[in-house]
Amino acid sequence: MTAIHERHSEAAIRDLIAKENVKFIDLQFIDILGIVKSVTIPTSQLGDTLEHGKWFDGSSVEGFARIAESDMFLKPDLSTFQIIPWTRGANTTARIICWVHTPDGEAFVGDPRAVLAKQVGIAKELGYSFNTGPELEFFLFRSNDPTSPTPLPHDQGGYFDLSTDLASHVRQDMVNTLENLGIEVETSHHEVAVGQHEIDFKYSNALTSADSCVTFKYALKAVAQKYDLYCTFMPKPIYGVNGSGMHTHMSLFKDGDTAMYDANDPYGLSQTAKHFIAGILHHARAMSAILSPTVNSYKRLVPGYEAPVYISWARNNRSALIRVPRINPKAIKATRIELRCPDPTCNPYLAFAVMLACGLDGVNRQLTPPEPVEENLYHMGKDERAERSIQSLPGSLGEALEALKQDQVIKEALGEHLYERFIEAKTQEWDEYRKTVSQWELDRYLPLY
Predict the structure, then answer these.
(1) Which of 124, 213, 263, 433 has the most CB atoms around its CB within 10 Å?
(2) Mind telling me the catalytic residues?
């Protein structure tokens, strides 16, 4: 496999296109909900696209533009060129992730990728670089029909179980596919719930990690289809079992070295790291609308299923919102924190942008985090939590949106255009859910009343 760094130049890409007989190129971009969109061109159009961009109708894309301002164009980021493995053959296709621009050539303020890049630039001005390592969990269901009324897990495995059924082979195929797409996988394993899995890829800068996230999701769905399985990143597809999260490890670097470590601190954390933690905790309720952006997300964020509910931090306590993984003295550059509330339905560009903005707000204001809580928060009474000023995450998407509306730091990080479009789209989603009569309501109330 050709290394990514060798594919940055147009000449190198053209050589690879000729060698691999690539016929088409998907020009990919992301809407505000984190859904991958694409305009496909024959490879003969690559030169013109690189010189002039490729025009498309932005009014048809969620959260992008009104009809009166619809014309936009895509500008390819050549560093993201990859051949899509499952298309190899007569119609071999590559992909390039693109920046979205307005007709006057300016970066489009509603482009989620540009929002993250802007926030990374702000951090750079302060002397910091920002790395993230998301861990995406997912379910494999037997039916390749996502509208099937009863999701059927493919296997009966448990946490870290070593199995010889089809699921283990599917995971191996998924890992190979991700590697062929330039994503360096570190581990894969069965998760807690039946039919649930996790594949982790290498920690990297935030923009690369976000690109990998969106590629990861559609690649795994494509592999699952080969086996007549359905791969879903829905946070809580099955009642009574663990949901799927996207625990995200993050760290700041300064001058090429970690800004997170202090050998003299009991937790091994620098003051910068603690300020960053304080910023995340301070904005946690408002961040929820971005990090856990669906109605279903809040059915995962309930006590008893390892998902965080209470706003706190700790070293060993997995019921805390932020966990500090144990630090290896021989690898202090790996010092990081883990935020456990995001789920895979989030737009990773927006998620990483607000994580960075809120953490830096803590650094800039030198906020002090509360004392860490190592006790199991689920076993702690309401009165004790109140005495220790431990707040809860929002209990619904509606509650999260109300918190988001009060947070100026997140609004500035997203930009007014994207912020307003996001709230508009998610408010509509919440309103539709509130007015829907569910089967649970019919089963419970119709016989009684």
Answers:
(1) 213
(2) 57, 135, 137, 191, 198, 247, 318, 338, 340
